Amino acid sequence: MNGVMIVLFGLVGLSFGWFVYSKFIAFRIYRLDPDFQTPAHELNDGVDYVPTNKYVLWGHHFTSVAGAAPIVGPAIAVYWGWAPALLWVVFGTIFFAGVHDMGALWASIRHKGKSIGALSESVIGERTRSLFLIVIFLLLLMVNAVFAVVISNGFVATPGSVFPAWSAIVVALVIGQLLRRNYNLLGLSLIGVAILYLSIWVGTHVELSLPESTFGLNENASWIVILFIYAAIASMLPVWVLLQPRDFINGMQLIVGLILLYGAVLVFMPEMTAPAFNTQTAEGTPSMVPLLFVTIACGAISGFHGIVASGTSSKQINKETDARFVGYLGAIGEGSLALITIVAVCSVAYAANAGEWHALYVEFSDGGANAFVAGGAALISAGWGLPEGFAAVLLATMVALFAGTTMDSGVRLQRYIIQEWGEIYGIDLFRKGLAATFIAVGACLLLAFGAGGSSGDGGMIIWPLFGATNQLLASLTLLVVSVLLIKLGRPARYTLIPMVLVLFMAFYAGLIQLIGFYHEQNYLLMTLDFVVLVVSVLVMLEAVSVVKKHRGVNKSESTQ
Q1: Domain at 3-559, CATH homologous superfamily
Q2: Is the terminal CB of the chain with fewer CB neighbours within 10 Å at N or C?
Q3: Contacts for 212 with CB less than 8 Å, ≥ 6 apart
Q4: pTM for the whole thing?
Q5: What is the C-alpha to C-alpha distance for residues 429 and 124, in angstroms, rounded to an integer?
Q6: pLDDT for 314-360, tens place per residue?
């Protein structure tokens, strides 16, 4: 099949999601109110709560949730064949991710910008909040520790991406100041993206790297330390100084990148050399069901999105109706990235024929970000005639910037959780922003170097838990939104049906992993996996209890 047909199928589906389904959910189910006073106005502090232009906020939200996951997940999952990955990405984005992300935003906005963990107390109960926060903190710990490894590996593998990745921060700082002075947003966007692409061109000629050993740390480990120092500083700055403009520029860069990739497909019209359903999988390959649904998270549905939506984005929403643009359209942006990733790693651009593709995808773990960079660069080069080296640096920079943006937001979100714990348990030290940030970064570094030694890749040790844990969190977030809808007397099936499916797949995957960890005698992962599964069951039971009580009250009132 030609890649153009896959792209058209995906884009038609995503267009239906935006123009039809998202409007129905936004105005008939969530009933977004343009006159509702959002937390950004009610609690405006100039640091975390700041009313923000919806286009700028979309850039922040989208690049924060995107990271490398909508690239890595699909690029691995196509091992089962491109058809299952395509269907999950398209339908998952329309009926799962968009509803989940917009719902998390709406629920948080209606509860003074509380994180999904904290607001679960108001919706379900006090015990739920404590359980929720444990899962969220564990997930953030995984994301921050591992994305630092992803970026450092990218810097070492593609040193040309170092200069543009750090140049983007300088550009963002300048744009943040200019936006604060009401300079034209469109003009600044064009200038910012132009400078960013100029820096990418410079990066193809100026490759930067760190010494092989610094204070006993290799180059990868040194980058990890530098990245966490940066993330700590960035997470303490007011959102308008760096977070918003950096994310907005990254969002604009992604749009240009997607135009280049999708345009290349239309011009080059690459044939799909990968099988629609792979019947030549290696022995020991995990079952597609349920693993497909946790391998592709971002790009279909992801619990991490709910953390970002309720953690940072909800505090910056100018009007409640902007939740549709920021939340649902952000999910569509991610779905479109996952969609083009499938074409990039399954078409003739990456492998000339089926035999070569099978040689590249020998085992389930093959693929990933490197496959996307290689396939995408070849696709852009074939479609637009750009040098393949430039295209590779462009895509490697895009991956690094997304992962870095996720780290920025992730550390900030960890700080919020620690501060929430300070409020809940009366710990004054945890309430202070500086102390909470150091605790958050310290926990990440402890995992990175305590578990991984001098390499700093300790996050990889617990990373196998990410897929199931992330999707369990997505189902729990949909559960909170569903209970809130039930309490308000509104239809909840549009959130409950996705919740049940995601919960089943994630729980099933978690059980499979639990058995695997036991046989491998990996008792650390087995214990953590068991804790996450038990917490999920307890939250579900609490929610069922609340719904029963609420329905019981409604029945008694109706008989009076």
Answers
A1: Amino acid/polyamine transporter I (1.20.1740.10)
A2: C
A3: 218, 219
A4: 0.89
A5: 28
A6: 999 999 999 999 999 999 999 999 999 999 999 999 999 999 999 99
